[in-house]
Structures are given as C-alpha cells and as structure tokens.
Design goal:
21% helix; alpha+beta; homotetramer
Chain lengths: 147, 147, 147, 147
C-alpha cells in the first residue's frame, strides 16, 4: 500500500452517534453555527475509532496524532436548538498515511431520520509525536480497514 | 412572593446529565477550557426545565427568555478529553423574576462518580420578548418550585 | 445574470484582517482546533462586506441573511497560541443568489506573511427573513461585484 | 509573602484590549453567549502578562501554567454582533501561588466607553509542568506586582 494507491474499504455499517443541539451551538440566525457541525463529525469519528480500535486518547498516548488535512461540507437544511441530530460516519478511503471519513448528518423525528442537514468529508493525516507525517500504525490500519 | 423574599424550594432529586468530553472542548493545557464547563451547565439546566415543565425552546416561543444574570464557578480538578462527566443540577432559589441553579460536576469512573471537577451557581433572570425583565410565568414558577 | 451564468468579478485587492490566536482556540494537540479557522474566515468576509457595502448586521436588519451553503478548507501548517494570523479574502464568484469567498490564511512574522496555514472557499446563499432563498439585493450585488 | 497574606498591588493603569463581536460568539437570543465573555477576559489578561512580563506562551515553555481556579461574572447588558467591546483588566490581588484579575467589560460608541456590559473576577493558580501547584516564579511575581 502506497500513498498513490488508495485502499477503499468494503462497505459496512457506519457508526452513528446522536447529539442534542446545545444553546451554545446556535448563533443569532437562530440555527446552529456552521462550524459546529465539524465538532459533531469529530465526535462521530472518534467513536468509530473507539469501537474499531482504541479510544483516540490512547492513540495519542502512543504518539500517533490524526490531524485534519482538509475537509468539505455541504449544508442542506439548518439544525436548530434542542434538535436531535444523528451523525453517521464511515471510512471512505484509507492510504498509508491518511484516512478519509464521510458523514451524513440528519435531524431525527421520533428517533427516526427525518431531514438531511449536511454531508461532509474529512481527510486526516497521521503525525508522529514530532508533528511530522508518519505511516498509520499497522494495527490501526488493519482495524479501520477490517470489514 | 416578591423579589425581596426568596423562595427556597424543598430539597429533592437533582437532575443529572452525562457528557463525554469533546476534543474541541480541550485547550493546549491538555484539559477542558474553563469556559466550556458553563456550556455543560446550560445543557443540564435546560434538561431540568424540560423534565419539570417544557423544552426551553417552547418557553422562548412563548416569549420568555431566561438570560444569565451572574454566575460563579470553582474548579477543583481538570476534565480531560474523552472523560465521562456527570453534571448534577438543582434549583437553589426562586424569586419572582429570577431562578438560581446550583451545579456539581464530577468525573465518572465505571459509571460512578469518582472525582469532583467543579461546582457552580448560575442565576437567570426572566426577560420578555422585548428583552426587559418580567416575572416568571406562574406555571413555570410552580413547575420549578414543585417538589 | 442568472443562476446558471456565473459572474466572475475582476481581480482586485483582497480584504485582509489580522487576528491573534486565543488560548480558547487551541486544542490539546497544542494547535488551533480545525473548525476555528472558519470563524476567522467569517470575520474576514464580514469585514469585506462592511468595507464594500454595509455592516453585515445592517444587512440582516434589511431581511437579507447570507447563510453558508458549502465550504472546503485545506490545512497546510498549524497555527499556534499567540500567533499573529492574516486572513485575506476576496470574492471569487457571484451569481444571482450566491456569492463565493476565497481565503488565504497565513502566519505573520514581524508583520510580514511568513507561512501559509490554510486555504479555503466558502459559498454563501442569500435567504430572506422567511429563511427561503432569494436574489441578492441589487445594491449589494453591485457593491460586491464592483472593481 | 505567604498564601495567607495577600499582597494588594498599588493602583495603576489597567490594560485594555478591544474586540469586535464575532458572529460565532452570538447565540439565538441575538446576543453574545454568556460563556464567551470569559474568552475576552483571557485575551485581556494574557495581554497584561505580555506587556508586563513575557508572552504567556513563553511562560508555559518555562513550565509555568496559570490555571483558572475560580471566577465570577455579572452581566449588566448584552453585547451584540459587531459591537466594539473594551475589556479593562488589572491585578486585584497577588499571593505566592495565585493571582487574581478583575475586569470591566464595556461597549464602545465612537471609540468611547458607552455601556457597562459585565464585570468579572478570575483567580488563577500557578501549576508546574507536572500539573501540581507551585509558587509563582519570582520574576513573574515582581513584574505583575510592580507599579
């Protein structure tokens, strides 16, 4: 596996987390401030890492940092205060030094997905304790890629 | 009940919410940034209002805003990324125009309270849709004061 | 001018704002949390709107909201606490209902641009007071498009 | 100087910083979210430390952390989006291990103080690189206490 050969994981169940919108997350437009959706994405992807491998805090203690390299997000409908929001995330690409998460963010009604709020893609790059790029540890890579 | 006569509610079960510390909530000291505890307090008190009365968003639709008038918080130990944190809140005083919430914020270990992180008090004042102070609506006051 | 015909403004001086990194903006990685760069972009684009047209708050009072429709950002190097950061923004596309801002975010050393931190593009859509898409007001459109 | 004997610095010019309210700092009440005032206080006190001593980042590199031990804040009037806000801070008490900053937060009109928004007090405790309480370094203490 090299940086020029992407490894596309097989489809499998995404990981989902639910959040309730906090007052602090709204702005004077009466909706969630756009940058705050990215915080929810972070909560979802660390949950995926925890379920598949280890708490992310353990990863950092081992000297592996996953830093955001780039991201894109599209907003479909606004989230509002006290909305129940579901964030689904899955790994859409793994390379030797990077891992890309995709996201679907939806509003729930009666615990069911009701309205699409946003879709996003966030690419992370592995850094060592010295803040320089490094390969993803083999066990992490296998855990994330495993079906 | 007047503004100069405080009504102290009878002791009763506080409302508790649990939050897991988000990466976004930490700072470079490696702990939760001090202002973010106040966001958790807000999540806890709106949960108390929801359980005892109505979702806070409904209250605002009725033209009642509860704005923070003053607060104090003491930090006992730092919260860290991915910690499970419990926030207990209860109403420590109600007056005709203000309601005061007290908070105990603790770190959990194995779902049990383990370490006291912070204690806080937040006093809210009722404002009308015109942003001017007003009395708490009778039904809200009764709901919050009821044992 | 229709939604399918983009109007590309002529090149002209971008607007620049400088910010100093706040402690609250860092995370435990010791760098600025990735979502916070988008707040700086917002500060820069409202400054551009203020210089070319009106304070954004006046725009909202007139019933025109500019909501973020989508964005992308690429991180080149991390910003750190107390860094002096320059955000340059310019309008890269205007259509009848949308306006797109591009950004270059750099670290300063001795008041000169030193290191590229990030580049970003944010597309905004005009909404009316009813939260529905609307055309950009003519005077705003002319002010933003004027060389 | 011991922990039980407070040293009250002589009165002298406070340090002032100006901030313009960011959209991200508002909430759906249309005013600045209450916890965000504490971020401005942090910007003001690190500016005071920079002017009197060293950039706070240098202090941390020397293994001295100033962590918030407790704080109180009273809100007098709301700050709104694009308001120009002045934060004045001064040291109201120094002890061997703690330093207390007081704050006045005002809205400006035509570059002059116009309306009192909030007053606050924040007490910081010195921690070493091991996160345990330590004495303030002598040179920092002298710099902060000097008239």
């Amino acid at each position: 596996m090299t940086d020029t050969t992407a490894f596309i994981p097989q489809p499998r169940s995404p990981v989902e987390i639910d959040v309730r919108v906090r007052y602090a997350e709204t702005d004077q437009m009466g909706v969630v401030y756009h940058a705050n959706y990215l915080v929810w994405c972070e909560v979802a992807r660390t949950e995926l890492i925890r379920q598949r491998f280890l708490p992310y805090s353990e990863l950092e203690k081992r000297g592996v940092i996953l830093a955001v390299a780039d991201l894109s997000i599209r907003y479909h409908a606004p989230a509002r205060y006290e909305d129940d929001v579901r964030v689904r995330t899955w790994i859409s690409e793994i390379r030797s030094r990077t891992v890309t998460f995709s996201y679907e963010i939806d509003r729930l009604a009666n615990s069911e997905v009701d309205v699409r709020l946003a879709t996003a893609t966030v690419r992370l790059v592995a850094l060592g304790a010295d803040s320089r790029p490094r390969k993803l540890p083999d066990d992490l890579l296998r855990a994330l890629a495993a079906d």
